[in-house]
Write a structure and sequence with these properties.
Blueprint (H helix, E strand, L loop, with lengths): L23 E6 L2 E7 L5 E6 L2 E6 L4 E7 L10 E2 L2
Antiparallel strand pairs: 1-2, 2-5, 3-4, 3-6
């Protein structure tokens, strides 16, 4: 952050954050599922996972989600709803 502004320099594994898309489904680590992305002009995003919706903060335009699945063999990847 320089002069109070985010410069989008980079992240661990995702590359430059200013080139990050609205939804990057990372996948699965053991029984945990994750996704992340960038949304301009939003302070909150909604992600659906295992038939539940989660509101996630995105105060700087970047959001992330990770959750251990109740039924890992039967669930889909997290989806960005709004």
């Amino acid at each position: 952050m320089e002069d109070g502004r985010w410069d989008g320099a980079g992240s661990f594994g995702a590359g430059p954050l200013d080139r990050l898309g609205p939804l990057v489904v990372g996948g699965r680590l053991g029984d945990a599922f994750f996704a992340y992305g960038r949304v301009l002009g939003h302070k909150v995003v909604t992600v659906e996972f295992e038939q539940r919706r989660y509101e996630l903060p995105a105060p700087l335009g970047v959001w992330g989600f990770i959750k251990i699945a109740a039924a890992p063999g039967r669930c889909r990847l997290p989806a960005l709803v709004s």
